[in-house]
Please model this.
Amino acid sequence: MELDYIENVNGLDENVVRLYNFDKAEAIKFKALIKDVIIDKKKRLDLSEVDFITPRNCNLLFGLFNSDEGILTKDNETFFCVLTMESYVDMINLIEPFCKKESRGYQYLYDVDCPTDLLFSPTASW
Model:
């Protein structure tokens, strides 16, 4: 699984932090990681410390907050996923189909009005 950032993906100043190039086994591991670290232990998850994720041009940290803000950054290199517990539970439900079979589809992992989306795409496309 790889992680990168794509600025202004559509000419409308919308950006994407993308988790891509993964198979069913890695989708299962990623879903379990979110459930174990964020939901169960209520701790921050730093993707640069995950052995099966290769950061390309950025890093992403997940954390629990009182409101859903989406992905925030000050430098376009370190990104913070600011979501509530409910949104992380929704996120693992959105990842679930990728854990059942190999897929060529994609999924945005939250629905928050912010300039940067979080894309989950095994083939890197959308």
